[in-house]
From TrEMBL:
Keyword hit for Hydrolase: no
Record-given protein name: Orotidine 5'-phosphate decarboxylase
First-tier enzyme category under EC: lyase
Listed Pfam families: OMPdecase
Role according to the record: Catalyzes the decarboxylation of orotidine 5'-monophosphate (OMP) to uridine 5'-monophosphate (UMP).
Active site: D74 (for ompdecase activity), K76 (for ompdecase activity), K76 (proton donor), D79 (for ompdecase activity)
GO molecular function, one term: orotidine-5'-phosphate decarboxylase activity
Entry-linked HAMAP family: OMPdecase_type1_B
Catalysis: reaction(s): orotidine 5'-phosphate + H(+) = UMP + CO2
Amino acid sequence: MSAPPLPPPPRPAPTARERLIVALDVPDRRAAEAMVERLGPTVGFYKVGLELAYGGGLPLVEELASRGKRVFLDLKLHDIPNTVERAAAQVARLGATFLTVHAYPQTMRAALAGRGAGGLRLLAVTVMTSYNDADLADAGFPAGVRATVAARAAYAARLGIDGLVLSAEETAAVRSELGPRLLMVTPGIRPAGADLADQKRAVTPAAAMRAGADYIVVGRPITAAADPAAAAEAIVQDIAAGLAPSALG
């Protein structure tokens, strides 16, 4: 009997700069390209969400990947299994690094089947960071945010999903329960003193790192700044502060 295959070597920890994902929440490809140009080498990881995807931004995924940038395609897939499987297969061909799906069992299984053996990593969205307990109750989930996130995260881990999208308010508890394997990607990040806008469970970059996040997603605090590159650099420095041994305890 042959020996079982060795487990893959552990992934090197990303640097503070590599942990920042800038959300290109702009209406079209031209605006996205202009923002990427303004940010230059300060940022190497971008999120393309629904607005830009529907505004002609999907070809930008391939372009950015060809330039050595990484792309988080935030489509939050959720449909019948056949549709999700085929959509995940299409995304895998674009060269994206991350793809989001909603954390429902059928959806996650289908996306895993469709993404193939390439480098696409699947992130399950547990509970949107614009939701609080009252919003979940209105939608028919009376257990509340923390319990719902914990249940969905555990199921995603059992299925073999690569990572989770969740608020930093839940990251520490989920990390403690499920261990280090899953990537934790935290949206709803706001620098200290920034306007929360439509986010109800927002934290600072440093606080997200201390909670155990691997990556953070930042949009308007960078893209709406007078100097986006300077705003991004300040957030990178805040990430580094949150990763410092003294900050992590």
